[in-house]
Write a structure and sequence with these properties.
mainly beta; four-stranded antiparallel beta sheet
Amino acid sequence: MYAVIETGGKQHRVEVGEVVQVERTGAELGAKVVFDRVLMVGDGSAVRVGSPSVEGATVRGTVLELDRAKKVLTYQYRRRQNSSRKRRGHRQDYMAVKIDAIQG
């Protein structure tokens, strides 16, 4: 059984026992989280697609890790001599969640 969930503005395809990295919410380490925005649930050839989400479907998981992703560098450059040359870095916060159950 698998499901497609939406969290943090992104969609993730998840299965039971899988560990996924999602954007960090206010959850603590070791806490149970529930994703109620389930867009699709599939079990073999039976597929339920929501509009926009499947009624009564939830995905439950446990927070395993709270961390930050690798640094992504961005550059802004203009070819004129006294114009802008900028370098910026960004590290996105994430949490690793182990999927415990898919209901729906």
